[in-house]
Specification:
Elements: H1 4-21, H2 23-32, H3 37-73, H4 77-105, H5 109-112, H6 117-132, H7 134-149, H8 154-177, H9 182-208, H10 220-248, H11 253-290, H12 294-328, H13 334-347, H14 351-367, H15 371-394, H16 399-423
Length: about 450
């Protein structure tokens, strides 16, 4: 069973890595504010394109991690090596496909999201550069999830610390020194992720003792577990595409930019903290179930719950009291700053619920019963589009209507996840060996 000290250490390392994973958004958002408002709107809007991209590539990572955790708990290093080898092969194939799709389709994305003119062109340039480095962006989630599943969350934290440092140093050089503008922000990310991902893969190969025989292509179990999570994430991204097209973009570029700032500078920090605690719990749950100790999984939930609730409360306070001065660092335009402040004040109320939802998703993810995440999240996320349009435009709430549509559905998702976890059916279901399946 996991001790309080071990739980806190695993949660701290997981939270640190998830915050650093998304820190490139902060770097890009900060420097492009000095390029132009359309460039800032483009980078802000790109977040939801990248969520869709990571949903596609993370089907491999999230489909691999629960099996790695169970193999670790069952003390079966050979099965663990096969799982990771399969993950690396599948990641390479998925990254190749996303590179081609991204390079080919980047210019048309802006129009789909309601952007026009310079903002649409800037988004296309930004996405084309990121697509070129898809392999490095795709490898990072797999390396992260494998180390966390084995209870070694410090490794991803170190790797993403390295990536953040390189990104912060390289981005201003590309943006201003080479005068690449918004495209330079993307190249800074590609360079930083390329170095960190390469080091991470070598570190992982050495730690698990991978050999050529482990480089298999057996994706069915992986897609069975990772597919629902990836589909839920994809639908989340597509829902925001719909929100941007029908509810947010009609309100003006200031609201577009405010969404990007709020999502990057505020939720880009708080949600990774919540998610990191959830991933730490998923690791503990998976290893406990792999060892045949469902009581250990329940105990782990009890260990992590107070931490999650505390973080949710702190996030509310930060959004409410510090949201305006913090978002002001990323908004040179007064109109953008005013809208970002409204975003922070509204979304403050959902932060404790997001914290609980992320923790409970960690239980479901660690057990491998991921279909529940899709069943709960997908319909409520889709509901955000008509609800936001009705509140923002039908009732005249403006941007506040969009933000409260997000809040209302978040409250419902947290309650439904709690119901699933309390039922306890997630404690059943043995792992399948990667050497014999499919």
């Amino acid at each position: 069973m996991i001790s309080r000290r071990e739980a806190l250490g695993l949660a701290a390392s997981s939270a640190a890595f998830t915050v650093l994973t998304r820190a490139f958004r902060l770097v890009d958002q900060y420097f492009v504010q000095f390029v132009s408002t359309p460039a800032q709107a483009a980078v802000g809007t790109s977040i939801f394109v990248m969520v869709l991209f990571f949903a596609v590539v993370e089907v491999v990572a999230v489909g691999t991690a629960p099996f790695v955790a169970r193999a670790t708990g069952a003390q079966d290093p050979e099965d663990r090596a096969f799982r990771i080898g399969n993950g690396l092969v599948c990641t390479g194939l998925v990254a190749a496909a996303t590179t081609v799709a991204g390079r080919w389709g980047a210019d048309g994305v802006g129009g789909l999201l309601g952007l026009q003119g310079e903002a649409s062109r800037a988004l296309g340039a930004y996405l084309r550069a990121l697509a070129t480095g898809s392999i490095f962006l795709a490898l990072a989630p797999l390396v992260d999830q494998c180390f966390i599943a084995m209870g070694r969350a410090r490794v991803p934290a170190l790797l993403h610390g390295l990536s953040f440092l390189l990104n912060a140093l390289a981005t201003p050089w590309f943006v201003f020194g080479w005068d690449l503008g918004v495209m330079g922000a993307a190249w800074g990310t590609v360079l930083a992720r390329g170095v960190a991902s390469s080091v991470g893969v070598l570190w992982l190969l050495r730690h698990v003792g991978l050999r050529p025989v482990h480089a298999v292509l057996r994706p069915l179990d992986m897609f069975r577990v990772g597919g629902p999570v990836a589909l839920a994430s994809s639908m989340f991204a597509l829902v925001y595409w719909g929100l941007l097209r029908f509810a947010i973009s009609p309100l003006g570029p200031e609201v577009n930019a405010a969404l990007g700032i709020g999502f990057s500078a505020l939720e880009g920090i708080t949600w990774p903290l919540f998610h990191g605690v959830g991933l730490a719990l998923a690791s503990a749950v998976g290893r406990s179930l792999g060892a045949g100790r469902p009581d250990g999984a329940w105990q782990a939930l009890g260990r992590f719950l107070p931490l999650s609730l505390t973080l949710g409360g702190l996030a509310w306070a930060v959004f409410w009291f510090l949201g305006s001065p913090w978002t002001g660092l990323f908004a040179a335009d007064p109109g953008v700053h005013a809208e970002a402040t409204r975003y922070a004040r509204a979304l403050a109320w959902s932060q404790p619920f997001v914290a609980v939802e992320s923790l409970l998703e960690g239980v479901i993810f660690g057990s491998g019963h991921t279909a529940w995440m899709l069943r709960i999240s997908a319909p409520l996320n889709v509901l955000r589009i008509p609800l936001a349009v009705a509140l923002a435009h039908g009732l005249g709430w403006g941007a506040d209507g969009v933000w409260w549509a997000v809040n209302f559905t978040t409250f419902a998702k947290a309650g439904l996840h709690a119901g699933v976890v309390l039922r306890g059916s997630w404690t059943r279901g043995p792992s399948v060996s990667a050497r014999t399946n499919e």
